[in-house]
Write a structure and sequence with these properties.
By secondary structure, the protein is of the alpha+beta class. Helices cover 26% and strands 40% of the residues.
Length: 91
């Protein structure tokens, strides 16, 4: 499994952390790199990795409104992805 981390180190008491699993056509379409870029733009901390079952798993941590924005971005994904399901677990 390939994984990538991103760290913008701005932890505070009002930090929201979620683990998401994205299913659909999400491997081989630069979904992981797109996730790192998007999360870094938003100033989030976390990691992302491909899973053996063909899904992508990520952990996002940061300001609640920015984590919410990343969740919405993950529903769309990069141009060649086709997201069929997004599971969100609060950590």
């Amino acid at each position: 499994m390939a994984s990538s981390a991103f760290d913008c180190s701005q932890s505070s008491p009002s930090t929201k952390t979620v683990r998401v699993t994205i299913k659909g056509r999400v491997q081989g379409v630069f979904y992981r790199d797109w996730t790192v870029e998007s999360a870094s733009q938003l100033g989030l901390n976390g990691w992302v990795r491909n899973r053996r079952d063909g899904s992508v798993e990520a952990l996002f941590s940061g300001k609640p409104d920015l984590v919410d924005e990343m969740e919405q971005r993950c529903r769309r994904g990069p141009p060649h992805a086709m997201v069929t399901a997004l599971q969100i677990v609060f950590v």
